[in-house]
């Protein structure tokens, strides 16, 4: 039986699911493919990912992408100053992409338009006032507020750039809320904040579309390929994530400067694995510290999580749900995290004491877990996995999306 067509646009190839937004977009694609004939448009911003483009054929009826691997944010920034747009919008301006969108909508008779990331919303702008089309924008988190956080943590001579982007995006986000049938965010907290930022008549359009986790893949009993994997230390902790992402860079630098010294002094044999692709120069320099290992890109993060006594998520600049936290909890590991790392995630009782913002308390919590492990005490965090399986599976997290894409006006009982 044929399925209804849907247009799915996203700012980055939704495969492989090896970093935050790609985990989300891949699972969105997989979910949509169960219910619709998906016509997928995306941008390619990493040459390494080009090899994965054919793998998407399993999930979509047609696909189109633009390679922007050589496109620099600095050039987009200069163009944005001239065009008076946000850098985020200017970076993705591409006439060929717009042409494909228009032709695909017309040829395939598509009426359901689903866009991931506010910077991509521009490609359905000409359809926003046409009631034949249902338009849903998944903002994931409030980009403008992230830029506000960046501005507060940048030197004075660059702060104005980030502040300008915050203002431009805040205005654009409100325009999208006005124009789209529904806008979704990654957590109830994020949705609540966006409602508070928005005019009362439009607040009914704001919904939660949560992140989930593949609990079969991230499972303590799962088998994974250990070929070419270096010998991992018997006593270790880990951080996983894309290591060219500002929030992750800030997190590991803060941790290494403020927390790691207290850990390595008590446990000189301990290793801290920073696991993720494209580490910045600042992250690479952390490998000079005693016990810190910067892995770079790895084919599978699970062996590092599995080998660790605990995962850490010392996020200080963040919006939305952290996949790294869900994944480690799904593998029945304790996660020592800040309140920003915990944002949007309910915690079982066994995990609740490990949400800490003070550097000294954060270090004490990690040392406690390491001491328990060394004394061969049982670290039973199986409740973490049970909690994630029950609450954060992908099908449950995305169950409301088909009704949003079918409705002309979606309203929550707020």
What do you see in this structure?
- This protein is of the alpha/beta class.
- It contains 17 helices and twelve strands.
- The chain has helices at residues 20-35, 73-83, 87-91, 95-108, 143-152, 156-179, 188-197, 246-258, 260-266, 281-285, 302-307, 323-330, 339-342, 359-374, 382-391, 394-397, 401-406; strands spanning 5-10, 37-44, 62-67, 112-116, 134-140, 182-185, 206-208, 236-240, 271-275, 292-296, 310-313, 335-337.
- A seven-stranded parallel beta sheet has the order 3-2-1-4-5-6-7, with helices on both faces. Strands 10-9-8-11-12 form a five-stranded parallel beta sheet, with helices on both faces.
- Strand 11 (310-313), helix 12 (323-330) and strand 12 form a beta-alpha-beta unit.
- It starts with a strand and ends in an 8-residue tail after the last helix.
- The relative contact order is 0.11.
- Residues 409-414 have low confidence and may be disordered.
Keyword list:
disordered C terminus; alpha/beta; single chain; 7-stranded parallel beta sheet; 414 residues; 12 strands; 17 helices; globular
Lay out the secondary structure.
Blueprint: E1 5-10, H1 20-35, E2 37-44, E3 62-67, H2 73-83, H3 87-91, H4 95-108, E4 112-116, E5 134-140, H5 143-152, H6 156-179, E6 182-185, H7 188-197, E7 206-208, E8 236-240, H8 246-258, H9 260-266, E9 271-275, H10 281-285, E10 292-296, H11 302-307, E11 310-313, H12 323-330, E12 335-337, H13 339-342, H14 359-374, H15 382-391, H16 394-397, H17 401-406
Parallel strand pairs: 1-2, 1-4, 2-3, 4-5, 5-6, 6-7, 8-9, 8-11, 9-10, 11-12
């Amino acid at each position: 039986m044929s399925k209804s067509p849907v247009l799915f646009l996203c700012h980055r190839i939704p495969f492989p699911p090896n970093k935050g937004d790609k985990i989300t977009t891949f699972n969105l694609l997989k979910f949509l493919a169960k219910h619709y004939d998906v016509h997928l448009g995306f941008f390619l911003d990493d040459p390494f990912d080009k090899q994965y483009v054919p793998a998407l054929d399993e999930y979509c009826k047609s696909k189109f992408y633009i390679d922007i691997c050589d496109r620099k944010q600095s050039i987009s920034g200069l163009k944005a100053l001239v065009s008076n747009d946000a850098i985020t919008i200017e970076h993705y301006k591409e006439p060929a992409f717009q042409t494909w969108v228009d032709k695909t909508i017309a040829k395939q008779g598509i009426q359901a338009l689903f866009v991931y990331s506010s910077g991509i919303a521009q490609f359905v702008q000409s359809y926003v006032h046409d009631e034949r089309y249902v338009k849903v924008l998944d903002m994931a988190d409030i980009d403008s507020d992230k830029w506000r956080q960046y501005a507060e943590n940048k030197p004075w001579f660059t702060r104005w750039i980030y502040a300008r982007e915050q203002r431009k995006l805040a205005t654009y986000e409100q325009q999208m809320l006005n124009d789209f049938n529904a806008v979704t965010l990654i957590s109830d907290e994020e949705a609540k904040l966006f409602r508070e930022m928005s005019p009362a008549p439009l607040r009914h359009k704001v919904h939660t579309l949560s992140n989930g986790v593949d609990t079969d893949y991230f499972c303590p009993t799962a088998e994974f390929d250990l070929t070419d994997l270096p010998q991992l230390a018997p006593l270790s902790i880990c951080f996983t994530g894309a290591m060219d992402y500002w929030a992750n860079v800030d997190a590991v630098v803060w941790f290494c400067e403020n927390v790691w010294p207290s850990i390595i002094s008590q446990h000189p044999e301990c290793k801290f694995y920073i696991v993720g692709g494209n580490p910045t120069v600042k992250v690479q320099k952390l490998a000079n510290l005693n016990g810190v290992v910067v892995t770079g890109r790895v084919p599978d993060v699970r062996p590092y999580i599995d080998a660790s006594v605990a995962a850490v998520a010392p996020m200080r600049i963040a919006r939305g749900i952290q996949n790294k936290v869900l994944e480690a909890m799904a593998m029945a590991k304790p996660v020592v995290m800040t309140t920003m790392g915990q944002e949007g995630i309910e915690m079982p009782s066994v995990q609740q004491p490990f949400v800490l913002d003070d550097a000294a308390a954060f270090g004490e919590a990690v040392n406690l877990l390491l001491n328990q492990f060394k004394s061969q005490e049982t670290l039973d965090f199986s409740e973490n996995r049970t909690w994630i399986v029950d609450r954060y599976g992908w099908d449950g997290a995305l169950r409301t999306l088909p009704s949003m894409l079918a409705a002309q006006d979606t309203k929550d009982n707020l």
